[in-house]
User: What shape does this take?
Amino acid sequence: MKKTMRLLLPLAVAALTAACNGTQNELLRAEFEGGVQDKVYLTLMPLNGAEAVTDTLTMQNGIVTLDMEIDAPADVTLELEKDRKAYGSRKPAASEAYRINFLLQPGEKVCIKAGYEDNYLKYSLFGSEALRAQSELREEMRNECVKIGLLYDQIVEAMANGVENVEEAYVDSIYDAYEEAVRQKAKASLRYIEQNTDELLSGYLLLKHPDREVFLEYLPLLDSAVVNGALKEKIEQVRQNAEYMRQIRQNAEKLAPGALAPDFTLVDLNGKEVSLSGFANRYVVLDFWGTWCPWCVKGVPQMKEYQAKYKNKVTFISIACRDKIEKVKAFVQQENIVWINLMNGTEDADVAFLYGVSGYPTKILLEPGLKVQNRYIGEVPEFYQDLDNLK
Assistant: This one.
């Protein structure tokens, strides 16, 4: 993919190290070098659970300002309008390389000096030691930020013509590279956390780490004042989610090939109860999906083909997750889907959790006797090859 080249605007060191000339009432002042004139989208997310503040700031002579007060630590993001990228139905957002993002604490006022270099929006934060540390961290992560931005653009480009025209394996390979670059970027944050366990910024950086297993590993390193301080509610929320995801992974590991699949009972689209144990003498395909999942929807035609081909040997059971029954009913009718369709439950009836489903679609092939033969994440050809090879 050819990246759209941006105007190369080298920033003199003096320009990025000089303090901003603002007023005492400004919570935020951002100065953009190189004659930039654009709208700036602001998101200020309080980390105490309060409602987010969003605004569109008008730039004058390359400068935007915000006058307000905050009484809790906030995750602040600035994005220039021209840098926002549309990705399917998701909210447009600038890529990692063109987004200003930092923690702002009560009592701090921030000044930002920013300007474009090739494939990168460079910025420095002034106002406190914690703000300075964040801009130094981002510069340390520069190469990874650029790589993330390029990979992000490749994903956007690949998806531009609609999911039905995309090779899933190709997009998945880009996602894998993207996620690896994100992990590499996070290494600088982990080093900072290890060296500054008593700082609120360390708690913030850990909250933003993409790997929840790493979050659980590093959480005990933080001082109790950080864990039980201003970020307590957010840290507890993420901790619970991380432990939930850990349990999902453990549930998936329990269902290795040869393991006995746990029984369950769910309701179909007409409210009738259906139990897995009723199909113990046949091969069974458990298809975890949702109408909101583009790959799931894309795979329906081939699923229909194989269900018709093997309906005398294999029972297909689709389990709609995170979905509404009205949407599922409409889709099933529209696509003339004739196999069993169930609605996933909650708590003890959350079969996706019980089966360790972490991505969609996930298909699990069960042998007669309800033993696991294999698990397939995504629309992968191996699933259909295994059906063709059934005895």
